[in-house]
Amino acid sequence: MNEFHRYLGLLIVVDFLVIALWGLALRVARREEAPVLYRGLEHWTENLLFVQSAFGLVFLLMGRRVVGDDLVFLHYFYGSLFPLIAVVAGRISTLRREQYAYVGMAWGAFFAFGLSTRALMTGMLARCGLNVFTPDCLFG
């Protein structure tokens, strides 16, 4: 189950990056409407984030905590609370725009990408030290 939590976190980080870059590409191309697949990826990633947060909460209630230095509590904020706020803020800003409605969600995904990446780093820092983004740490 712990492996699932790690891989799901990695998938969420990649999804947020794809959403942000795709939104940038749509804006550069001056597309007024986002493709259905783009909106589907947004909703899919939001749902995965809720599932990931639920798994993290279950781990916390089971007594399985991230071990490491004194700042490891930031994993809980970076991993669920802050990305959820960024996604909700992106969704609200999307509702307030008539043209280029996807831009708000792209910005929300950009900030959620950064926060989720930080959560991945704080969660794996204790296990891998400073070599967080090596293949052995990510997939080993």
Short description:
It contains 5 helices and no strands. It has 140 residues and is mostly helical.
Tally of extended strands?
Answer: 0
User: Any idea what the shape is?
Assistant: elongated
Low-pLDDT segments, ≥5 res: none
Strand content: under 5%
Round the mean pLDDT to the nearest integer and report it.
77
Gap from first CA to last CA: 15 Å
> What summary fits the major beta sheet?
none
Number of helices: 5
Helix content: over 70%
Radius of gyration: 16 Å
Structural class by sheet pairing and helices: mainly alpha
In N-to-C order, the SSE pattern is: HHHHH
Overall description:
This protein has 140 residues and is mainly α. The chain contains 5 helices and no strands. It has helices at 2-28, 36-62, 74-95, 102-128, 135-139. Helix 1 (2-28) runs antiparallel to helix 2 (36-62), helix 1 packs antiparallel against helix 4 (102-128) and helix 3 (74-95) packs antiparallel against helix 4 (102-128). The longest helix is centred in the N-terminal third of the chain and has 27 residues, at 2-28. The radius of gyration is 16 Å and the shape is elongated. The model has no long low-confidence stretch (mean pLDDT 77).
